[in-house]
Each structure stands twice: as structure tokens, then as C-alpha cells.
Specification:
- InterPro entries: Arg_biosynth_ArgJ (IPR002813), ArgJ-like_dom_sf (IPR016117), ArgJ_beta_C (IPR042195).
- Heterotetramer of two alpha and two beta chains.
- It is a single chain.
- The chain is 31% helix and 27% strand.
- By secondary structure, the chain is α+β, with helices and mostly antiparallel strands.
- Strands 1, 2, 3, 4, 5, 6, 7, 8 and 9 form a 9-stranded mixed β-sheet that branches. A 6-stranded mixed β-sheet has the order 13-12-11-14-10-15.
- The longest helix is centred in the middle third of the chain and has 21 residues.
Length: 403
Amino acid sequence: MAELFHEIDHCVTAPQGFRAGTTACGIKSDAGIKDLAILVSDVPCTVGGVFTTHNLRAAPVLLCQERLQDGQGQAVVVNSGNANCATGEQGLHNAYRMTELAATKLGLAPELIFCSSTGIIGRQLPMEKLEAGIPQIELSSEYGDAFAEAIMTTDTRPKRLALEFEIEGQAVRLGGVTKGAGMIRPNMATMLSYLTTDVAVERAWLQQELRDAVNDSYNMVSVDGDMSTNDTCLIFANGLAGNTPLNAQHPDAETFRQALRYITCYLAREMARDGEGATKLQTIHVRGARDKADAVLAARSLTRSPLWQCALAGGDPNWGRIAAAAGSSGCEFDQNAFDIFIGETQIAAKGMAIDYDQDQAHAAMAGDEVLITIDLHLGNGEATAWGCDLTHGYIDENSLYTR
């Protein structure tokens, strides 16, 4: 797969025809920190989107879901520091006003503008700051990395990637960014994500491929098991590569599919790695499940187990925590059949402890990346999930979040 794709710079502005810009307008309490950003295409795009399944959905999510029905768009405006959630009719009005301001700035119809917000819930957007900030944003194809930084909240670093590959024998590009470090739970993981491509893609196929990619990446991440109100993933395809629009029958459809999975899985891992207070990234691979759905249940259950997350933080290869999480996940589970590995070291077989090299097991737990493999020996189902350890740093972050 590595031979197919080449990593390049500028993430979401790497594909031709995309520009971005940022500013610090004072929404965040820290003066001078970038907290407002725009991403725009030079031409209208086919747009796909996936959103939170939370019953308390933020105003920008409601706006995006409405506008996505047309499947067309050209820009997104994003603020950090304020979620614009649980803000009633005024909050919804402010979300629409946010897109109107961006539309005026860009010379576009408001209906072509999407918006997102991230930050503290329950506070109205300071619209006077947006009114002043949006017009001063300078746009450039060089500012993709800055866009990734401006959308962060408790993230310690930006998450971004762009790939170059071939469609119909010509070089094309796909870029992506995410933000997310806490309030992370599948369906969707607590996050904002924006993907851009210069490939032409049929709308229905783009939407299906995005949903499938999200299911195997962003929906397989957990930091703390808490679901967010603002989760948004949008993909913009402007077609400037000039290819025949991709669909399921196109001979290069699989190449695009793999590129999309490459980026979303990379960004999913980076969110887990940057979990609030985290010191370790854990990858959970479940195989031998009855089917994929059962493998997903087992893998997700382990990433959401605070008992196992604490063992992970302490470097304790307590495989009983692993078995307990998998057995309570709701998947089909034979207590006399499962095997467990930490790294390359097998520590349980057929549901029981075995003699193993404890030094090797502790060494496998000691690094900043830990791999856990569970074989249920019940079928061909496989799934991979990502999470992190649970440390006092998580408490520190979330006990003072609104101060």
C-alpha cells in the first residue's frame, strides 16, 4: 500500500484548488491563540458528511445536516473555544450568521458554506468577535497546517496528513485533518474532521465510502467513553483533477477507497495517541470473532474499560482485565476458547493462563505504543480499535476545563 501513496505537505490544501486561513479573534481565553478558520475550494464541490448520533446535537451539526441534503458545498468555517451547543434558537441563528459572514468574505452563496464549532457547551457564540474576525482571515494554499492548528481545543498537537496517488494515470491528492483528544467515544468519536480531494467523485458513492471509512476508523476510537455533541466529518471533492467521476464500477475506485482509509485510520490513531493525559497509544486487534460486528464489540469494549486503561498506564500485563472486557462486550464468547497476546507474547490460551516470559510482557507494556491481540476462535470476524491509557492527567484536564 505504501507504494501506492506518497505523503505530502499542507494536508487539506494539498489538493489543487483548496485554500485555508486562520485568525485569533479572542473566542479562546488565551489571547493570540488561533481560534477561527476557513477552508474553501475555488469551485463548488461534491460533499459527503457523517455526524454525531448524540441526542443533544450542536447548532452547527443541525445546519450541516440540513445543507448536506443538497450534496454540494464550497467552504467550511470553524471556531474553537465555544461549542455553540445547548444554545437554543439563538445558537442556531448564530450558526447561520456564521456562514453568512463567511459567504460575504468569500463571495459565495451562504448555502454553499458549512460550519463547525468546538469547545465549551452551553455558552452563546460571541458573535461580535466572529463579525470582526472572519473578514480579516487571509487565505492561501500554504495554510493547510495552520487550519489544523486553529481547530484544536485540548489537543496537544495537530493531526493532519495528505497523500498523492494516481487515478486514470494522473496524479491526484487527498488531504485530511482532525481535532479531538477528550470526550472520545465511537458513534462518532468526539472530533471534527475535514477531508479534501481534487478527484471527481459521484455523490452517492462518496457518501457511502466516507461512512464506511468512518466506521472502520473514527468510530473505532475511544479515549474516555464519553460521546460528544459536535462530531462532524466532511469531505469535499472539487473534481479539478478532471477524471471521470468515481463510482463503485470505476477501475480506480479501490485506489481511492484505500487512500481514504489510509488517512482516516492514521488520523484516528493520532487522536487516540493524543488523548487527554495519555502516555500510551493502544491498538486492539480482535480476530476469530463470529463476524465483524462481534469483533467490533469486543475491540471497542477494551478501549472503553477504565480498569484496563489504568493497568495500561501502570504497565501491568493484567490479562484478566482484557478477558473481562471482551467477555462483557456482548459478542459471542467462549470462555474456554480465547487466546490473548500482548505484543508478540502470548499470555493466555484457551481461556486460561499459560507460562510466559513476564519480562517480555512487561517490556511490551512499557513503550508508548502497546498492541493487544485477542483471538476468539469462533469465526472469521476481525476488527481493530484504538485507545489510550487513563492517567491523572485526564482528571487534571477535565476538572478545570471551563476555568
